Amino acid sequence: MPVPSGWSRPRRAEEDREGRGGHKHPTRPGGRRRPATAPLPVPTPAAYPATVGSQRGESREEVFGSFEEYFPHHVSRHSRPATRWLHFAGAHLGALAAATALVRRRPAGILALPLIACWVAWGSHRAVEKNRPAGFAHPLWSLRGDLRMIAMMWQGRDDELTRMARDQSTIVLDGGEPGPA
Question: What is the pTM of this model?
Answer without folding.
Answer: 0.59
